[in-house]
Amino acid sequence: MERKWISLVSVLVLALIISIPSLAWAWSGKVVGVADGDTITVLHDRKQEKIRLWGIDCPKKGQDFGTRAKQFTSNLVFSKLVDVSPVTTDRYGRTVAFVRVRDTLVNEELIRQGLAWVFIRYCDRAIYERWNSKL
Q1: pTM score, two decimals?
Q2: Cβ contacts of residue 66 below 8 Å, gap of 6+?
Q3: Tens-place pLDDT, residues 1-37
């Protein structure tokens, strides 16, 4: 009876992990580079991994506020330990993810500060509604 219980619990935990990819693949690493407001480089398993912030778009270098967005992101995350919750991989091989530093969701904070907008084309999660209505 006890073995059946343990097996059942194990199957349920595995099913939960598989059904919620961000729980299955979340990891932490130190930010070692900031390319622009929505792209950073994080050390992961002793390798540098480019991370594109999911669901947002920041102005790029040469565009109005591009330097400001990059500086804000850099001040928020550079040389800090961040939590990365991957969503997908983009066509350039970058991990597209939610990134947290302490209690701050970087993706959302850039919108709140007016340095990014919701990237409607790719923002297909419920948080999009919150970002669009409350920020």
Answers
A1: 0.75
A2: 36, 37, 58, 59, 60
A3: 666 655 555 444 434 444 444 444 799 999 999 999 9
